[in-house]
């Protein structure tokens, strides 16, 4: 179990005006790892996160194991975790087949993930933006029938690794369609971390013409050290939730600095209680220095000894 396997699987949420704490786990950020992470290890990590006091932990992704071998154990992971009262465990579902499989495994929250870049959409989920919307509509329709909430992701909102520039109008178009079909919240992702405060402001101003601010979140990578500035800009234009990636889930993204992490853990930036912050800080610091594999080894040894 390599250290890098755990350098990319945690996300922290910090904000001023919302009471719910999100952490997005490895469903988004293990996808590019070649080394398969043992199912038991994934389950143990989620269980550790559940003990911190977080209210939402994204558990896994119901994608095809043919294309994403890392997620071949999605059913085992979702059925194997210890669900804590008051904690939600959403999963990613790119299409109706994935949604149905997730429900069969006990999913009660799901998310669909699209893009504002045509090329990125084809490379990431193997279909055009228009085709992805059709697929998502099927998921949302079925989810409504089962009373399951659906969250929507939009990737490459401030730039694309293939097309470079992303038009704010395209972001607004995709976000509007996701919201109109029934997604309760739309997360706007700066997938490669190329965004600037100016670009963030322009993009959000355009999107806010189509989607109400209470239904928007931003998801920022700190590739070029702009995450905090971009989050501040988002807060200034009334976006209520913001994300920062810790680690290297996307090849061009870099880990969040310890200084940035500590700054974000100040009371000004979070309504989490002290115990939750303490638990999260411990896990994130372990992720940063690459010692999580040691934690699991020690934890497993202790359990066997007991």
UniProtKB/TrEMBL annotation:
One BP term from GO: L-leucine catabolic process
Catalytic activity from the UniProt record: (3S)-3-hydroxy-3-methylglutaryl-CoA = acetoacetate + acetyl-CoA
Molecular function per GO: hydroxymethylglutaryl-CoA lyase activity; metal ion binding
Domain named Pyruvate carboxyltransferase: residues: 12-283
Gene3D superfamilies on file: Aldolase class I
Signal peptide start-end: none
A Pfam family of this chain: HMGL-like
Superkingdom in the source lineage: Eukaryota
Annotated InterPro entries: Aldolase_TIM (IPR013785), HMGL (IPR043594), PYR_CT (IPR000891)
Biological or metabolic pathway of the protein: Metabolic intermediate metabolism; (S)-3-hydroxy-3-methylglutaryl-CoA degradation; acetoacetate from (S)-3-hydroxy-3-methylglutaryl-CoA: step 1/1
Annotated keywords: Lyase, Metal-binding
EC id: 4.1.3.4
NCBIfam families reported in the protein's UniProt record: PRK05692.1
Family membership: Belongs to the HMG-CoA lyase family.
Name this protein carries in UniProt: hydroxymethylglutaryl-CoA lyase
């Amino acid at each position: 179990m390599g250290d890098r396997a755990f350098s990319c699987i945690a996300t922290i949420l910090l904000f001023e005006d919302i009471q719910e704490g999100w952490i997005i786990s490895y469903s988004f950020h293990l996808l590019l790892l070649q080394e398969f992470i043992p199912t038991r290890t994934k389950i143990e990590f989620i269980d550790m996160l559940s003990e911190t006091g977080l209210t939402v932990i994204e558990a896994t992704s119901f994608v095809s194991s043919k294309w994403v071998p890392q997620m071949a154990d999605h059913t085992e992971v979702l059925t194997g975790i210890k669900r804590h009262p008051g904690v939600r465990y959403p999963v990613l579902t790119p299409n109706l087949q994935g949604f149905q499989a997730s429900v069969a495994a006990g999913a009660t929250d799901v998310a669909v993930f699209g893009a504002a870049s045509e090329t990125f959409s084809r490379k990431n989920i193997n279909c055009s933006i228009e085709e992805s919307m059709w697929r998502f509509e099927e998921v949302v329709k079925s989810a409504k029938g089962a009373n399951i909430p659906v969250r929507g992701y939009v990737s490459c909102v401030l730039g694309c690794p293939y097309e470079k520039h992303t038009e704010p109008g395209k972001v607004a178009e995709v976000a509007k369609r996701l919201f109109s079909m029934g997604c309760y919240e739309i997360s706007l992702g700066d997938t490669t971390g190329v965004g600037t405060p100016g670009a963030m402001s322009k993009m959000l101003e355009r999107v806010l013409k189509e989607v109400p601010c209470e239904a928007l979140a931003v998801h920022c990578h700190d590739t070029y050290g702009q995450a905090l500035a971009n989050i501040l800009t988002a807060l200034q234009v009334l976006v209520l939730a913001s994300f920062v990636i810790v680690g290297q889930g996307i090849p061009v993204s870099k880990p969040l600095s310890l200084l940035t992490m500590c700054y974000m853990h100040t009371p000004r930036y979070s309504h989490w209680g002290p115990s939750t912050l303490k638990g999260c800080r411990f896990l994130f610091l372990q992720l940063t220095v690459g010692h999580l594999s040691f934690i699991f080894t020690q934890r497993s040894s202790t359990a066997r000894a007991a």
